[in-house]
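A.,

Following up on our hallway conversation. Structure tokens first:
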């Protein structure tokens, strides 16, 4: 079971990793490298705290919408050293990344509230169209969408390495189906 301290650690890891895209650094690759380095430290020093820290990074990686299978070999080694399994530590019902199809209904489902208001710089249909266009054209950059009424902030990250959408106030990350 997760406690408050674990939740705080995972949230801090996600916050730190989420800033990488501002320097055009792959979030996914950085997670893999960090977990790999923690495993290396464990092998060299024999201290299981490195493995426990790696588990926090794996949880953050999964919560950010990245696929377990892409780093499964490394992750499974760590779980094996801790004598546990993916099913126990990261049940699929909690850590299946939210994959979004690039259609209006699915893209709209990522945005919680966007009330019509004269203060809005973009209507919800314009936001959805803009997101879909940027993704389909793979327009590199970090794009922000802010609701003038709720002040909710959404971030679309498109780089050569990855594409994801971040619901900032809720801390939810979405990946897109290929």
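Then the amino acids I'd put at each of the 178 positions:
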């Amino acid at each position: 079971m997760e406690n408050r301290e674990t939740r705080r650690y995972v949230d801090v890891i996600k916050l730190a990793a989420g800033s990488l895209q501002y320097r055009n650094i792959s979030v996914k690759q950085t997670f893999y490298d960090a977990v790999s380095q923690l495993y290396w430290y464990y092998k060299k020093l024999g201290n299981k705290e490195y493995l426990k820290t790696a588990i926090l990074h794996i949880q953050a990686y999964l919560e950010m919408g990245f696929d377990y299978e892409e780093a499964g070999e490394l992750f499974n080694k760590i779980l094996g050293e801790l004598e546990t399994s993916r099913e126990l530590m990261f049940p699929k019902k909690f850590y299946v990344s939210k994959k979004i199809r690039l259609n209006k209904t699915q893209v709209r489902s990522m945005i919680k509230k966007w009330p019509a208001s004269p203060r809005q710089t973009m209507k919800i249909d314009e936001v959805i169209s803009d997101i879909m266009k940027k993704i389909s054209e793979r327009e590199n950059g970090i794009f922000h969408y802010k609701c003038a009424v709720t002040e909710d902030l959404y971030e679309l990250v498109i780089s050569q390495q990855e594409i994801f959408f971040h619901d900032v106030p809720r801390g939810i990350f979405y990946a897109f189906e290929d």
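Residues 27-45 form the longest helix (19 residues). Curious whether your intuition agrees with the design.

B.
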